[in-house]
Amino acid sequence: MNNIKEELTKMLNKALKLEHAARIQYLTHAELVKGAGAEKIIERLKEIASDEQEHEEIFRELIGDYLGGKPTMGLAETFEAKDTKEILEVNLKGEKEAVDFYKRIYKKVVENKEHLQYEYETLEHGIRHVIMDEQEHIVELSLLLGL
Ligand SMILES: [Fe+2]
Ligand SMILES: [Fe+2]
Question: Is the pLDDT reported for residue 16 higher than 90?
Fold first, then answer.
């Protein structure tokens, strides 16, 4: 494994931990939403959780099949929230942090294109796809928050 592959494996494993945590957090928070309009919010949180599961699968495949690495089973930190507004806020913050970090991974991939002869397009596409989904999650959570 060359250095860039090792470095990307480390970064994508950190990203995979974020996805594991995000999925669990969304599914747990979905059970805590109560009151007027709850059903719509619960449905949206569960939809987002299933996107996060898709992201886990993308990252696992990139790590295992394209970088020759070992996908982690680890979990990043999860955050509690006391009501619906706080649930939406804490997850919005998480989505923004994910985008910030994934853009760093994306930049690293693009900068090392010539060292990723048989992997570049798949890595670039997979990571860009995930970033676009997270940006959609930011829009959806912002709308629910009335931002
Ligand atoms: Fe995600
Ligand atoms: Fe997300």
Answer: yes
119 alpha carbon – ligand 1 mean position (Å): 21
Q: Nearest bound ligand to CA 130? A: 1
Please report which ligand is nearest the Cα atom of 58: 1
User: Per-residue pLDDT averaged across 88-105, rounded?
Assistant: 98
What's the gap in Å between 51 CA and the centre of ligand 1?
6
Which residue ranges form the domains of the chain, and what is each CATH number?
3-145 (1.20.1260.10)
Place of tokens 């928050």: 145
